[in-house]
Design brief:
Length: about 450
């Protein structure tokens, strides 16, 4: 006896085979359907020999191989049809789509949908769209496409803050969803974070001559730590002597750099695939994050202190880790740190991007020039500033810049090389001195 042929919501299998799980996934991800075990492709009823054992094998396979748990949307039963026993697997449209094969993951090879009489892989764009449909448009709350995650940097920071990071805490922090799967928030804090922070160093005050670059990867916490350490090691200090008092002044308020970096990491739109950018020039540092302002907020409102985070759960975790003092105070604190400077921070927005510019307070015209006598510390600071502007120095550059003789200029350069501030580079008969950037 034969029955109706396969359709968009009907699939026939002569016998139980592991591939049944693909059809179950496809039905759950589409509009539901029924798999008949014991019926040939042409509709001929064949039946199964051991229905009880077959149903147990099907139930075990579906329970163990499909995520999230699909069993609430599946019914398995045996019926008599044309004198044979047939197994019917009835699948309803799932509420936690996309469903996928555990051993394949949230990728086209593991996610199927029903198209006509076939179960076909869903594209990555289709998977993302299905996640948004199921969980809303908030990036950090959506289920992560990658589930094989580790959290070394996250757990280390949590331990430093005496915070628990067990499964219950991950759920409280919304890194684990109600379906037991990692969210995009977890992905951002994992060692497998797909987004990076790129730092570019340019010679002078424009981007014509490119000197060096770094790319920080891994958890956002690791990126924050690595970039902060780079600033700490490579932002020059200008020292002056006023009477008998030595005064040290960094080119940038370090707290302002940290606030700008935190803002760029916490408030960017991670649905964009690009990197967070930090561009260093002789006279300024720019922080560029993707996403721009949240709809409904204006730049005037931001400068007034209004705050609405695009990633409130990420901001909450950074707050718990005491990386930020309180919500929405970053820009206000940056402005306060630059209160007495001649060049004020600049905050700009464009469609899809936000830029914070911090100016070098020791650059020419950025701060009052001290009338204190010239000292060795101040001379070295001036040489460092010149090296940052030009990229490479000669002894004659130092002579002209400091208005000193060749012997003193050479001694200053040798001392700075021995201290690891500069490095010597031979170019034929010419000797250049370049700024050392520490790792």
């Amino acid at each position: 006896m034969t029955i109706n042929r396969e359709n968009v919501d009907v699939e026939y299998k002569r016998c139980y085979v592991p591939e049944i799980r693909k059809d179950v996934v496809a039905f759950a991800n589409t509009d539901g359907g029924t798999v008949y075990v014991g019926i040939a492709d042409d509709g001929t009823v064949i039946g199964v020999d051991n229905p009880d054992d077959t149903m147990l094998r099907i139930a075990g396979s579906l329970k163990d191989s499909i995520a999230p748990d699909i069993m609430p949307f599946v019914q398995i039963r045996a019926i008599d049809k044309a004198g044979h026993t047939v197994i019917i697997i009835t699948v309803s449209a799932g509420a936690a789509r996309p469903y996928y094969l555990r051993d394949k993951g949230l990728k086209p090879s593991g996610v199927y949908v029903r198209r006509g009489t076939a179960s076909q892989p869903l594209s990555e764009d289709g998977i993302r769209d299905m996640i948004v449909q199921s969980y809303g448009k908030s990036y950090e709350s959506c289920r992560s496409l990658q589930q094989d995650l580790t959290f070394d940097a996250f757990r280390k920071k949590m331990a430093q803050c005496n915070l628990d990071c067990g499964e219950a805490q991950l759920r409280t922090l919304h890194m684990l969803g109600e379906d037991g799967l990692y969210t995009n928030l977890a992905l951002l804090l994992s060692d497998q974070c797909e987004h990076t922070l790129k730092l570019a160093i340019f010679q002078g005050n424009d981007d014509v001559v490119f000197r060096n670059r770094k790319e920080f990867k891994g958890s956002l916490l690791a990126q924050l730590q690595a970039c902060s350490e780079f600033f700490e090691q490579n932002i020059p200090v200008m020292s002056t002597i006023d009477g008998f008092v030595r005064q040290d002044r960094r080119d940038y308020p370090m707290a302002a750099l940290r606030e700008a970096l935190l803002n760029a990491l916490i408030h960017r739109d991670y649905s964009f695939n690009g990197s967070t950018l930090v561009n260093m020039y002789a006279d300024r540092i720019e922080f560029i994050s993707l996403g721009g302002l949240i709809p409904g907020l204006s730049m005037d409102a931001i400068l007034m202190g209004v705050s609405q985070s695009r990633n409130p759960r990420l901001a909450n975790i950074f707050f718990r880790m005491r990386l930020v003092e309180s919500f929405g105070t970053g820009i206000k604190r940056i402005k306060a740190l630059y209160k007495n400077e001649m060049r004020q921070p600049l905050f700009e927005t464009a469609k899809g991007a936000f830029k914070t510019t911090l100016y070098n307070v020791n650059a020419t015209g950025a701060a009052p020039i001290s009338n204190a006598p010239t000292t060795v510390d101040k001379e070295k600071a001036l040489v460092l500033q010149l090296a940052l502007q030009q990229g490479a120095l000669t002894r004659r550059d130092v002579e002209n810049h400091l208005q000193v003789g060749s012997t003193k200029a050479y001694k200053i350069l040798m001392d700075m090389c021995s201290e690891g501030l500069l490095r010597m580079e031979k170019a034929g008969n010419k000797t250049n001195y370049l700024l050392c950037l520490r790792e």
